[in-house]
Amino acid sequence: MTAKSDPGLLLLIEDDPHDVELMQLALAPLRFINQMDVVTDGQQALRYLIGDDNHPSNRLLPRLVLLDLKLPRINGLEVLRTLRANPRTKKLIIVVMTSSQEDADLEACYELCSNSYIVKPVDFEQFLEVSTRVVSYWMHLNKPPALTTP
Question: What would the pLDDT profile of 18-30 be if each residue is shown by its tens digit?
Answer without folding.
Answer: 999 999 999 998 8
